[in-house]
Amino acid sequence: MRLCSARNLSAAHIHRQICEVYGATVMCEGKERKWVRDFQAGRDNVHDDSRSGRPSVITDDMVSSVKVKILENRSFTISTLSNDFPEVSRSVLYKIVSEKLNFKKLCSRWVPKLLTKDHKNKRFECSLNFLTLYNEEDDAILSRIVTGDETRVSHVTPESKHQSMEWKHTHSPVRVKAKQTLSQNKIMASVFWDRYDVLLVDFMQRGKPP
Question: Which pairs from 90-95 meet CB under 8 Å and 24+ separation?
Fold first, then answer.
């Protein structure tokens, strides 16, 4: 269009040429006339003029206030946060939390046991002693290590759904089974093993002291 305008072709002639190449729905003739007038008036680019757009409603003071509320209670929800900022929409609050402050809601990480400072010191001391022995005796020390653990197991463990699967044809009858639950009665099992094999599996009898 800019080239045709530089050749002093009329807007109607330019419109016919564009429609022949790109089809009749590419641009209406009115817009083409506007572009031709702009080029004739001295415009030398085909990009839209920059516009200021809608001003952002998020201010630095608002972001700071939201951050203070988040640090007071990290278990907040957008609904509870909106009670402290009734003049701000929930969508804006979510944008502040997730984009401006880069907060993400994460679950607590599950660990088997919370260790105290004394527990950590003892584990550090044991690990240091083991490294010292390993430096002195090399792999021979591994044969002298016996590990033990204990757990409570049910008297009866029902067959799982995966264990009950069988290879059959699609037209074969399906085996049915009653729903079972784990036995309420449990027993303590102690297991000891070394680097080669299981050394001992002991089941504590009911009423017998450990």
Answer: 92/57, 92/58, 93/66, 95/58
Q: In what order do the strands lie in the sheet with 186-193?
A: 147-154, 186-193, 198-203
Look at residue 93 in the predicted model and tell me its pLDDT: 92
Q: How many CB atoms lie within 10 A of CB 24?
A: 10
Give the pair of three-digit tokens for residue 208: 């017998």
What does the block give as tokens for 118? 């004394």
Q: Are 13 and 1 in contact (CB under 8 A)?
A: no
Q: Is the pTM of this model over 0.90?
A: no
Domain positions in the chain: 1-41, 60-100, 111-145, 146-154+185-209
Neighbours of 110 (CB within 10 A): 5
- pLDDT, position 123: 92
Answer for the pair 5, 39: CB distance below 8 angstroms, yes or no: yes
Ordered DSSP codes for 103-144:
----PPPP-S----HHHHHHHHHHHHHHHHHHHHHGGGGGGG
d(CA 96, CA 89): 11
**Which residue, among 100, 189, 110, 112, has the nearest Cα to 151 in the 3D structure?**
189
